[in-house]
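Pair request: fold both.
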Amino acid sequence: MQERQAWILNGFVGILLILVAIIGGVFMLIQEVPLIGLSLIAIGGLLASGVTVVQPNQSQVVIFFGKYLGSIRNSGLFVTVPLTIRRTISLRVRNFNSKKLKVNDVEGNPIEIAAVVVFKVVDSAKAVFDVDSYEEFVAIQSETAIRAVATRYPYDTFENVELTLRGNADEISDELAKELQDRLEVAGVEVIEARLTHLAYSTEIASAMLQRQQATAILSARKKIVEGAVSMAQMAVEQLEQDGILDLDEERKVNMVNNLMIAIISDRGTQPVVNTGSLY
């Protein structure tokens, strides 16, 4: 199905024609010309059955005995084809808030996820004829798309080598919107925006995953500290040798680097030991 413009006539002109036909029919009946009078009244009644009012940001799908004649998108008072059924479709921007869904991320961890989808109908013919109920279709396909996207990425990672659901919200939202648009195209619906509104580990593993996150964060921080400590120790030794302050052999270099590493990496503040020499 493809939306097209239905035949319409300005409503005020149509009402004027209806009144003229009815008044003319009554006048003919008074003049004892029943055939013409009844014909005019019947014509006025038929035209009156096509009177319709379209609100702003709405569309009316015109159906004549099971055949799609077109849609009326202009707002106002109109007269369309008589004896037709007209179904009103809202073209306004609307939100769909999904419920919290429990799914497994790419690593198999159960998570809770929810999203809000901003959409509007752009093709009223597809919305009416290609799906049973486009609103229900949007709800089901939105939840399906959220599940599909959530299973492609991990909830979180400290490696910074891939997209994550928690750390790359904009990229995930863009992919979710594209996934939804592909699914909702058949219903004549345009996805304006899709955003995650809830993201968390499932309650049964939340405590364990928090400990895992803490451990991973500690290991990552330790790695950075060790890298920095090695660099600082190397710089200190090179600077001392370059300035000629100390002339260290290999064993003393090792001891100095060891002391610097302990001082930098230790969780507690170091206590300096001052060698004052022997008292005797």
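--- second member of the pair ---
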Amino acid sequence: MLFTDTIYALSSGSLPAGVAVIRMSGPATADAVMHLCGSVPPARVATLRTIRTRNGDALDSGLVIYFPGPASFTGEDCCELHVHGGRAVVNAVLDELAAHGLRHAEAGEFSRRAFQNGKMDLVEVEGLADLIAAETEMQRRLAVEQSGGGQSALYAGWARRLTHARAMIEAELDFADEDDVPGSISASIWADVEKLRVEIDAHIAKAGLAELIRDGLKIVIAGEPNAGKSSLLNALARRDIAIVTEIAGTTRDVLSVDLSLAGFSVKLFDTAGLRETEEVVEREGIRRAREVIAHADLVLLLSEKPGGFQVHEALPEDVAVIRVATKIDRPDVKWARRDADIFLSTITGEGIAALLRALQAHLPDLAGKTSLSMPSRKRHVDCLRQASAALERGLAADGLEIRAEQLRIASDALGRITGRVDVENLLDVIFSEFCIGK
């Protein structure tokens, strides 16, 4: 990947489309625009131009927006061509750019150039990737907080406090005999360091909520064979995901579907019926069911008859369980109020709304919160824990030199989150998550 190249890519969605956006970035952008359009339009003004080949043949008419660097997304000269989104049109324009000597961009290369040129830090870059992939309202809010720089500002503030502390400690070490360097300055500095460690630990504690927002609440539908698990999955998904029959043991594997509930992502799993069996394939399905149950955040334990919830040996003790009575439309089965938590019928729809309310009660209440500043990736959490551990070691150490070294370690750990320190080996992994053209 050469950053002296001028790159291009289709940055909009799949073709065909009403409009396609082709993006360019690099030192030869202005020349390429001149080649295609005959002249470079005014900066940051959408201008209607005819796009032509080297021979002067018209390819299309579209809007051309030129962004001279450094006031652009990548910090380089950039341009966007808004053309009609037919495959033939787009391919013809891309071929013309390649013939002019431009190189097709690699995955995430535009964002990587923005990072390399100081337009974004790594937290903002990762937030941008999450914003593109966001499917629920909470995922969008979390991504906006990061891509907009809100979380980076928090880390930058912590880094400034550490830099100030390190400067004061180094001053006391190097100029202890000077009149203008107050003695025992450590007393005030280390009080703020302890406060900073508490703030970092409180921030780390939010990682579980961030993981739930990004990855979703894992809900497993479990129960005996023929309890209505697959029917419930289909009812909640509002489409046929699982095969439903009256034959016990129809579901042999774990099926899953992603839903959005109260702005949160919910991953719903349908599992094989839990029972003792000698049938080889069904036994494997039950093994997989118990495996997914072990990692669940919530289990919906289903039964079609009172007293059918006797599978607790398969459920982890620390996982919340909602007992769901199914097929209540059948007149031959009588339920008492104490027999289950939720009573429903997938045939009539009765009880589905009550079940959704019960599920929503297991989601965190973020109403009224304007900021979702929390570590959303394992990389962030690891660096924050390293910083916290270094501050704790520094607070416990006796020698001033050792304490100063622990502050440096903590500062480097914070710097690695935003990409200011020693992150070259992470860049390929991070930017590979992006689609071509971003």
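Observation on the second member. Confidence is low (pLDDT under 50) at residues 242-252.
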